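Dear support,

We are seeing what looks like truncated structure output for some complexes. This example has two components. We would appreciate it if you could run it in full and send us the complete token output so we can diff it against ours.
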Amino acid sequence: MDSQDFREFGKAMVDYIADYLDTIRERNVIPSVEPGYLQELLPKEAPAQGENWKDVLLDVERAIMPGVTHWHSPYFNAYYPTANSYPGIVGEMLSAGIGCIGFSWMSSPACTELEVIMMNWLGKLIDLPEVFLNCSDGPGGGVIQGSASEATLVGLLSAKEKIVKDLRKSNPDLTEADIKGKLVAYTSDQANSSVEKAGLLASVPMIHLPTDNCILRGETLREAIRRDREAGLIPCYVVATLGTTGTCAFDNLEELGLVCNEENLWLHVDAAYAGSAFVCPEYRHLMKGIELCDSFNFNPHKWMLVNFDCSPMWVKNSQYLVEAFNVDRIYLKHQHEGHAPDYRHWQIPLGRRFRSLKLWFVLRIYGIEGIQKHIRTQIDLAKHFEQLVCSDRRFEVATSSMGLVCFRLKGEDNLTQILLDKITANKKVYIIPCHYQGKLVLRFVICARTTTVDDVNTSWSEIVFQANEIIPRSQIIVEAEKSKLDTLGIATSRDPSNILMEKSK
Amino acid sequence: MDSQDFREFGKAMVDYIADYLDTIRERNVIPSVEPGYLQELLPKEAPAQGENWKDVLLDVERAIMPGVTHWHSPYFNAYYPTANSYPGIVGEMLSAGIGCIGFSWMSSPACTELEVIMMNWLGKLIDLPEVFLNCSDGPGGGVIQGSASEATLVGLLSAKEKIVKDLRKSNPDLTEADIKGKLVAYTSDQANSSVEKAGLLASVPMIHLPTDNCILRGETLREAIRRDREAGLIPCYVVATLGTTGTCAFDNLEELGLVCNEENLWLHVDAAYAGSAFVCPEYRHLMKGIELCDSFNFNPHKWMLVNFDCSPMWVKNSQYLVEAFNVDRIYLKHQHEGHAPDYRHWQIPLGRRFRSLKLWFVLRIYGIEGIQKHIRTQIDLAKHFEQLVCSDRRFEVATSSMGLVCFRLKGEDNLTQILLDKITANKKVYIIPCHYQGKLVLRFVICARTTTVDDVNTSWSEIVFQANEIIPRSQIIVEAEKSKLDTLGIATSRDPSNILMEKSK
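Here is the complete output from our reference environment:
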């Protein structure tokens, strides 16, 4: 394929993507395929001769799209958002076009330097203390990781090396194996599965501490540390969550920070989803205590319009990362070492894409105000959804926070489970469950960048439509009215449908 | 930015990328910037209001390009290639446009299914034994990792969990810490730095075994295992390299495989660069013994035209990965579990991009024959370079393999070092050094997809031009001629320039 073909193919793909996103509401958000569907549509081997790009593009629509879960449909209200924006997509294109590998400054200076500057822009945008920024005088700095999972693991591995060094300095007789075999880390019972996975991968037990209304408190941590130290263990790392996966709860960072500082534990903050809200000053009280943390991570690739993957992580002292990860070779050395971060020492893989380009495109083309507007709009839409839920007496809101509303049908869990199953089977709206205070709840998240009030109303209509098949609205209203009239001592003998008609006036 | 703006911006970017790659030879491959250059060109904070995309695109050329090391210039002959092709770029665009996250089958069925099928296509293309393929009856299968670093680490972490389980089954009194504190892993002294880093991250000492002409042999491994078992250690993992970073040497897989199978060690194969050559049957003898390995990894994002990142890894038994990595939650469960791989259990992060799209595009648009042609052309170009080196008596070829030629100026290392410094300072050709048999050599790699014989000649001219400033060609010729004439017993008194002119006829 020569560059002329690319100009045609690339432009056809730009139109295909624009058409796809323009008309995404017309597709069911959940695909109607069974496992193995694609094997029936594609050959078992690669073709011997090259094919025309037009045939490949036709097959995207024929074979791929029927099996896509449409994360950017406004009716995708599951998990948390994954970001997608036009500037983000074009930034990704340029990154692929330049195709450099930024493992050292020398391997492509612009790749390292733009990342350094973007981490400063972004850190200032969410009002991170200066100590975390590359532009501060100290050893702090920011780097783009691929995911929150990696950031959590990088923090843990750094904390692990740090405590081994600290302890062997004061107790030279201790072996590395002695120490590593006794390390423990903590997080809350609400933390994302990736936190537990980090513990598994690093061979450090990750203890899930109980929460107070989904919030991890300082005293709980302090007590756990005391108990484990008494048992001869060595606490080394805490992961606090700002915006938990289940219910978007915020751990009490200030309390946890004070305990970690007193006890010399590394405090990592996972703000994967909710961190983007800190671009708005009115939400920054939720990160109070941030100055007490050792590392902080959030995902602009979730809620801040930058296409996956872009997971910035800031640390107070990057030297701990470099000490844990540095394994240099002659072929990686260059004359400018020390003048700019060699980011390969800040992460797990050696190779790295030019990911800061898409962040730069998004920050410039939206501007700070555009990004703030996006966050505020999405939170307003969630509030609108919450009002819709509250307006229907069959439902109750369990909890809500940011762009997430957790709700359920009143009564036993099985009603809510049946509702979820019916919604999922109909494929028009995608929501997923979680547990809150011992009860099954449904998580409704504003995800797509393009979501409007009408879209939220449409999602809600589908939920109501399915609920009507389980608990007819009339029944609820009759019961409620009957109860009210009973209370007033008035006999109830009217036809329920009359009451329903009166209510709907 | 609305979709109409995106159509304009996206198409302008397609043209920008095509123009960039069409005219890449006009730029110096090494940029002329000093650390910190970009801080002078960009503001210190993100803009308050959004900017026009046209201004951003202008700034790409003004601020970014002067700091880019041009990995796709034919005069980039450093490291190993990172792939870039037009189908790969367009595949990356579509991946960004769809923007789904494929952590489970349900989260986007097409994402998992296309990856399963592509891993079969690719496995067949390089003639991997069927036991490694998803389409086999057994527990084997392939997955796309982000990098060889990750694949090596995933293999090590799986091997670590496996040996702990194996040993605790036979010795229930052993604690996990007892075992983990004694684990050791092996690789050769030629292995990539990422292998050592995997050991560091997994807290398993990675022992570098000596090589025989850069090749790790079975007896060396057997002896190391014997020695370490005697010392009370527990050997668990071996990383063999097919195509080492320094000189593209191939470990003796068959010998290593037999030892690992006898001794119950996990054998992982890192064929990051050279694995792509196995699409050509004439190079498959270099992977003899592959059936004895537990996991195999190579990077189509290096030499097989698929843009970074795309690092397929196949394992004989995926259950070991799932057991090491599975930490499930209610929000990740779905009704189709077990019918298709949930790839989140096969990798470090939870999130994953739709990376198989670009692989599919490349395999279809090039076809098997197109990919074979690419590999063979690049190897032929390396042979052409080798002939050029051999034609100049000041130089010697130390070793060559695949698309790599290691060469040097005859004599002391400092001559070669000066040559390298001069070439790098002139920024027209990018090569890097390594050590081979105790001597400094320069690695010349055919990297860019578009490299022609003329390009290789141009790179060579630059090398000769710089060499002429160190050792004038005339001097060498005079000395050589003198030595020849001396041998023949003929007095030498002619003007050196005459000899030079005769030679150049």
